[in-house]
Amino acid sequence: MASHYDSSQVQIRLPPFTPAIRALIIANVAVQVLQFLAGPEATGVLQNLFALDPGHVLRDLWLWQPVTYMFLHHPGDIWHLIFNMLTLWMFGGDIEARWRAARFTRYYFVCGIGAGVLTCAANVLRREPSATIGASGAIFGILLAYAMLFPHRITLFMGLFPMPARVMVGLFAVLQLYFVGAFSRSGVAYFAHLGGMLVGWLSLTGWWDPRKWIAEARWKMRRRRFKTLERRKEEEEERTSYRFH
């Protein structure tokens, strides 16, 4: 049976402007304004101190950088900030409305920090030391959560092409994998994007939590023990019934 997409069924609506989303956007915009007012020289100092630099993080133990890099954006490219904040609002609003502010904020920072740690590891392994800035790692974690919570909701890919949310996020992931291989020296932190998605998936599925592995191992051991007892009971019943024949 052929199916078609009926554009008349799409209702465009604005997502809620929730408290955590509002606070994150204000913080990011404030830092951008501070960089603009500070001037190039002071901005360079800020970037050196607070951007994610694997050398500083691993060698000098500047452990605040996996957090602070999320609030820095390119001072000469306002669209970097605008795109990230619009995406945060458009996809994060419904997530926060379902989770509430505390859980949403925790998830946002887990994805962003995790993406930063994975970016450091990738830069060391590929021997391509470079500083990373931007909230994209956390934003891609938000996109993944949206696809898992609302997989069949119709979204506009690139603002033009309607498709289910899970398909859109899958396309984003494929594009990031392609760019990692094809444009690894372009300066765009594609590892942060993929890292945010990976950490988000681990967080939402619980695979990061060793307690889940322990509980699953215990369940398998109990199941195996139950099957052994059941088998012994069946064998005993067979021997008993054979005696009376």
Describe the structure.
By secondary structure, this protein is mainly α. The protein folds into two domains: 14-205, Rhomboid-like (Rhomboid-like fold, Up-down Bundle), CATH 1.20.1540.10; 210-245. The protein has nine helices and two strands; from the N terminus they run H-H-H-H-H-H-E-E-H-H-H. It has helices at 19-50, 54-59, 65-68, 78-99, 101-126, 136-149, 165-182, 190-205, 210-243, and strands at 154-157, 161-164. A two-stranded antiparallel sheet has the order 1-2. The radius of gyration is 24 Å and the shape is elongated. Mean pLDDT is 82; it is low at 1-9 and 182-188.
Throw out a few tags for this protein:
single chain; 245 residues; mainly alpha; Rhomboid-like fold; 2 domains; two-stranded antiparallel sheet; 2 strands; 70% helix; elongated; disordered N terminus
What is the total domain count? Answer: 2
Biggest pleated-sheet summary:
2 strands, antiparallel
Portion of residues within helices: over 70%
Q: What's the overall geometry?
A: elongated
In CATH, the architecture of the largest domain is Up-down Bundle
In round numbers, the mean pLDDT is: 82
Radius of gyration from CA coordinates? 24 Å
Number of helices: 9
Q: State the order of secondary-structure elements, H for helix, E for strand.
A: HHHHHHEEHHH
Q: First CA to last CA: what distance?
A: 61 Å
